[in-house]
Specification:
alpha+beta, GMP Synthetase, Chain A, domain 3, three-stranded antiparallel beta sheet, 5 helices
Length: about 170
């Protein structure tokens, strides 16, 4: 896909959203199944059923997906797709590359053994290795726009209002 193909693909969407702002609002959803044995949650994705469980640092076997890993994987996926879309729009010469994310956790917080230890990631680092001959100023522009338009990056950088609700039985 080149920049003209991308513009042609997105032009009708942009026009629609300019004319009718409410059409741009979409509610994404995820669901999980808590039934079954063990400490697991079966998460339905658009492609497969994933069984998430405890990380080995909290007693898990390592055979199930870790939700912390899944968060980093979502960041890698979103930032990778965003970078490629931005590169396409800019006619940026990108032959390939790689993206990876790392996050630091102190599991004492998750296990409730140190009240001063945070629960959750304290640092997340995102790395790109690009196969390109573009000058540094173009790489900097690509990086800035990728950061700006990556949904997962922006959500982590500027957390949304988060609500937790519980219902019983037929109320759920």
């Amino acid at each position: 896909m080149d920049a003209n193909d991308l513009r042609a693909l997105q032009a009708p969407l942009k026009e629609k959203y300019k004319a009718e702002a409410k059409a741009a609002f979409v509610t994404l959803k995820a669901s999980g199944d808590l039934s079954g044995e063990g400490l697991a949650c079966k998460v339905s994705t658009s492609r497969a059923l994933i069984e998430a469980g405890l990380h080995p640092a909290t007693g898990g076997t390592g055979l199930q997906a870790c939700s912390g890993d899944m968060l980093l994987e979502a960041l890698v996926a979103c930032s990778g797709v965003t970078l490629k879309a931005v590169a396409t729009a800019l006619d940026f010469r990108l032959r390939g590359g790689a993206v990876r994310a790392e996050g630091d956790l102190d599991f004492r917080g998750t296990l409730g053994i140190a009240k001063d230890a945070p629960v959750g990631f304290t640092n997340i680092r995102l790395f790109f290795e690009l196969d390109t001959d573009e000058p540094q100023e173009r790489i900097d522009a690509l990086t800035k726009l990728t950061e700006r338009y990556c949904v997962v990056f922006q959500t982590l950088a500027h957390p949304p209002k988060l609500v937790l609700a519980v219902a019983r039985g037929a109320e759920a």
